[in-house]
Structure to design on (583 residues):
């Protein structure tokens, strides 16, 4: 499985309130949530994002609330992968559970800029920055999580057991 | 190698003699929680299961608290979805208007959470129940759905940071100041993926409500859970509120911690977190400029319990909320509301010019009941001061204790109770 797209770059502590503000949580429709994705940190995001694009951020991405609406909105906006130095733990769990690929890689978070074109190979964990010609190795998932990802989410994984 | 308190609870719930940090386990759950925002997503996920039904109708709690009494049609539809699910599966602990309260104040008060429990909740502040010596942690809606269906959840066993609390907090210093001080010290990701274990002689000098506040905000340091030892006070609380059997776990003498901090509670001062992160803390004497406020919120799962309201009332008694400041008081549960009424606290608030609302999470997450306009500032006893958290992207939230929020409501700027001669 591979991802390829243009990068939207953010800093430390991007919280779930800016990913999807609570004022929109009276909906649980992915398409509707996507129209407000990143609204309070980057008003232009939803106008510019193309299917396959990649979010790269620094420390503690997705901190704050447990709202699964956050990874749901990102996925429904067309984002193919989120790379960060670290993720907040509930966001990390939620992303795996709903099948949004995410990778922890401090070197990539530092070595990739906004607008770079980046390729991610999920099997090898290799992140290739096509724009700069640089390459990084992301942290591999434990086997248990790989099974959830392969089953395309936690519920399918449980159904298969 | 010894185990931390959290590791011991997880080992027991996984049916293993011992566990170590980093190990992946599957644990039996004592309670699965959801609210009116997260449950509809979980209920939708439940439809994908090949097996119908819930694992145990008595071990699921559904609390309608974020946008209710329904703030708009969409919120009403969400609650309707949960209400129908609760009826279909005969969920024992479904709390709607009339019985509901803010979930993390309501569940301990209702006796649903006791020491030794393993609890997941689709709400990040589920870590609150660590105050009673339970392992409890926030998860998302899919985990909640899996928990409701199977009664199990997977966990990566966390390592821990030990906070050795000593001494006694001085007047007007409460649990909120303790946890804001700690978050200021270690940062919003200082405890990422890890347990925060509170221990030491100082614990005895913290009320249960103080401990709930501290455990509640473990997530604001990135913590997986916050947990307190079970002492006589915790046992008395459980005996008063719950019929359930509790189980006391203690950390091994030789338990290994990633880091250890000693916090002298007697040295702490009222503390305020400035926008836009809970780690941006200043003690009240470090605030040299006037921070003029438009609104003060006293309530939430962090600080809407009876101790909090009593503290705010002591300050507001015989005083007036400054003209131009909106002061909103929200008792966290119906029981707290009634108790506040019987103790005359509501009269004090109303006479001071504050408004008192039915229990709701409302303004904390910018839902309703106190939304901020562009450029407005609020001092709040809630738990997050992120960009746009309580309203407009260009509004500001300052986090503080009920004492500081009430004193600030009177002066119209961020103030210590001492400024009122208290």
């Amino acid at each position: 499985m591979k991802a390829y797209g243009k990068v939207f770059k953010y800093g430390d502590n991007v919280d779930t309130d800016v990913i999807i503000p609570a004022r929109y949580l009276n909906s649980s429709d992915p398409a509707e949530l996507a129209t407000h994705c990143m609204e309070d940190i980057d008003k232009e995001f939803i106008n510019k994002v193309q299917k396959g694009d990649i979010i790269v951020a620094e420390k503690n991405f997705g901190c704050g609330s447990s709202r699964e609406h956050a990874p749901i909105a990102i996925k429904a906006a067309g984002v193919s992968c989120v790379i960060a130095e670290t993720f907040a733990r509930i966001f990390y769990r939620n992303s795996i559970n709903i099948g949004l690929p995410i990778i922890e890689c401090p070197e990539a978070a530092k070595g990739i800029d906004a607008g770079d074109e980046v390729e991610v190979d999920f099997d090898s964990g290799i992140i290739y920055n096509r724009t700069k010609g640089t390459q990084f190795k992301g942290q591999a998932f434990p086997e248990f999580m790989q099974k959830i990802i392969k089953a395309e989410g936690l519920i399918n994984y449980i159904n298969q057991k | 190698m010894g185990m931390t308190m959290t590791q011991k609870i997880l080992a027991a719930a996984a049916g293993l003699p011992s566990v170590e940090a980093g190990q992946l386990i599957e644990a039996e759950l004592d309670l699965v929680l959801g609210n009116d925002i997260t449950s509809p997503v979980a209920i939708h996920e439940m439809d994908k299961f090949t097996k119908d039904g819930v694992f145990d109708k008595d071990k699921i709690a559904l609390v309608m608290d974020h946008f209710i009494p329904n703030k708009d049609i969409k919120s009403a539809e969400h609650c309707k979805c949960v209400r129908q699910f609760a009826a279909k599966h005969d969920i024992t602990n479904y709390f709607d208007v009339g019985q509901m309260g803010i979930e993390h104040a309501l569940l301990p008060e209702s006796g649903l959470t006791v020491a030794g429990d393993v609890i997941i909740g689709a709400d990040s502040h589920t870590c609150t129940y660590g105050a009673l010596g339970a392992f409890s942690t926030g998860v998302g809606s899919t985990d909640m759905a899996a928990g409701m269906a199977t009664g199990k959840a997977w966990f990566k066993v966390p390592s821990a940071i030990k906070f050795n609390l000593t001494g006694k907090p001085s007047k007007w210093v409460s649990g909120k100041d303790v946890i804001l001080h700690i978050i200021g010290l270690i940062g919003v990701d200082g405890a990422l993926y890890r347990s925060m274990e509170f221990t030491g002689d100082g614990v005895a000098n913290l009320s249960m409500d103080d401990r709930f506040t501290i455990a509640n905000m473990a997530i604001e340091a990135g913590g997986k859970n916050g947990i307190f030892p079970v002492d006589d006070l915790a046992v008395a609380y459980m005996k008063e509120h719950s019929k359930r059997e509790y189980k006391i776990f203690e950390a091994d003498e030789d338990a290994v911690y990633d880091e250890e901090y000693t916090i002298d509670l007697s040295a702490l001062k009222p503390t305020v977190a400035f926008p836009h992160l809970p780690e941006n803390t200043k003690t009240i004497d470090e605030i040299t400029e006037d921070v003029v406020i438009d609104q003060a919120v006293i309530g939430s799962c962090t600080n809407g319990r009876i101790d909090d309201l009593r503290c705010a009332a002591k300050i507001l008694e015989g005083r007036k909320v400054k003209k131009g400041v909106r002061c909103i008081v929200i008792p966290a549960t119906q029981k707290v509301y009634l108790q506040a009424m019987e103790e005359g606290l509501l009269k004090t608030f109303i006479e001071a010019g504050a408004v008192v609302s039915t229990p709701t999470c409302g303004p904390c997450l910018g839902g309703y009941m106190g939304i901020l306009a562009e450029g407005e500032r609020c001092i709040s006893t809630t738990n997050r001061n992120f960009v746009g958290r309580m309203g407009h992207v260009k509004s500001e939230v300052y986090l503080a204790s009920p004492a500081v929020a009430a004193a600030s409501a009177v002066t119209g700027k961020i103030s210590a109770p001492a400024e009122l001669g208290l």
Summary: The longest strand of chain A covers residues 2-9. DSSP finds eight helices and seven strands in chain A. The two ends of chain A are 23 Å apart (CA to CA). Chain A touches chain B at residues 13, 15, 17-18, 21-23, 25-28, 40-41, 59-60, 63-69, 71-72, 86, 88-90, 93-94, 97-98, 142, 144, 153-156, 158-159 (CB under 8 Å).
